[in-house]
Specification:
Order of helices and strands: HEHEHEEEHHHEEHEHEHEHHHEE
Radius of gyration: 20 Å
Structural class: alpha/beta
Helix content: 25-40%
Shape: globular
Distance between the termini: 27 Å
Number of helices: 12
Number of strands: 12
Strand content: 15-25%
Length: 364
């Protein structure tokens, strides 16, 4: 994340002196992440930048944006770097000492898989939340698979049109662990597998008697993404195209019924829209974090949104589940989609652990 930030700031000719605040978002601890934002900022060439490290599972990206926006709104900062990164492919195995335990031994957990498979409040896996919502709304496997194929088609359109090059430096040279030489080259997102209708039809639900297949959900991924927030004056000074004006109009948060996580993005979206003084029909583009395809179906049913207007250029259902950067990348894609459309209002919303969700409304 620091390597990418340093390169992108240089490419965009953004001086380290431009920033007076930073926020780091991550949800999977890594070695030395105790030092958080100051460590990452220092490696990125921003040696005087300070700020907090934030963790809110899959809502981290939007939470980091809110933290940066609040600092600016309070008049404490004028230009903030909101940076998010996560590695879900190799989350740590943690040991918690307990000298009073049997034999003096403690407890342990696998940070990623252990928490995916068990909510400590209800004892259920995240997949169970999807099945609970599928049962509540009468959503069958075939309807979920139809969403998968539609979202993959949108992603393919983004690739063929060069959309990702609007915000990714591609091809991307992958450095070695010491950042001394290039060990590989990425032409785009890595690890994506596309589906076909016959292949999806052959899949059985993961849970006996359920509806969600492996094809109807996203996959673990690693990634990083960053976005700059600033006062209107500073934004005009730093922008490569001052004619494009981007405003945050509202945030929303929700926590729904226990073990019904995919239901939370709808109320979160409605709260963000209410703060913005807008309705779902005013949105020119809608992006979601959808770990399960049924998330988009539920959002459409509860808000009246047209599912065909969501995620027209891909989403995390397709490009993966790196947690903290998901919301950040989705908002970046939302902004770029609105810029290509000549402006408009856009909504991002997505669920997170603990049956919660966050949403944000932007104007371009």
């Amino acid at each position: 994340a620091a390597h990418v930030a340093r390169a992108e700031l240089a490419r965009r000719q953004l001086s380290p002196d431009a920033f007076d605040y930073g926020v780091l978002g991550l949800s999977v601890p890594q070695k030395h992440s105790f030092y958080g934002l100051p460590w990452v900022a220092g490696m990125a060439g921003l040696g005087t930048l300070a700020g907090p490290t934030v963790m809110q599972a899959c809502a981290t990206g939007v939470r980091v944006m809110l933290a940066a926006a609040q600092e600016i709104e309070a008049g404490i900062a004028s230009c903030a770097l909101a940076l998010t990164c996560d590695r879900t492919s190799n989350g740590p195995h943690l040991y918690y000492p307990n000298p009073r335990g049997p034999g003096g031994t403690g407890e342990h957990e696998d940070w990623v898989l252990g928490n995916f498979n068990r909510d400590p409040l209800g004892g259920h896996a995240m997949l169970a939340t999807a099945e609970n919502v599928a049962k509540k709304f009468g959503i069958e496997t075939a309807e979920q698979h139809a969403i998968v194929l539609d979202r993959e088609a949108g992603y393919k359109e983004a690739v063929s049109s060069g959309f990702h090059r609007r915000f990714m430096a591609l091809p991307f040279d992958v450095p070695d662990a010491n950042f001394r030489k290039t060990v590989g080259v990425l032409e785009g997102d890595d690890g994506i597998r596309f589906s076909t209708e016959p292949e999806l039809a052959k899949l059985r639900p993961v849970l006996e008697g359920g509806t969600v297949t492996y094809g109807g959900q996203t996959h673990p991924a690693d990634g990083n993404a960053a976005i700059v927030l600033a006062t209107p004056g500073r934004a005009r000074e730093l922008s490569r195209d001052p004619a494009v004006r981007i405003r945050i109009l509202g945030f929303g948060q929700c926590r729904t019924t226990l073990a019904h996580m995919p239901e939370a993005p709808g109320p979160a979206a409605q709260r963000a829209l209410a703060q913005a003084g807008l309705g779902i029909g005013d949105m020119s583009a809608i992006k979601t974090h959808n770990p399960f395809a049924l998330n988009d179906i539920v959002l459409a049913r509860t808000t009246g949104a047209d599912p065909q207007r969501m995620n027209r250029l891909g989403c995390s259902l397709v490009w993966g589940h790196p947690q903290a950067p998901m919301g950040t990348r989705s908002v970046i894609e939302l902004i770029e989609e609105l810029v290509l459309a000549g402006g408009g209002h856009g909504l991002f919303t997505g669920c997170a652990a603990g049956d919660s969700a966050m949403a944000v409304v932007v104007q371009v």
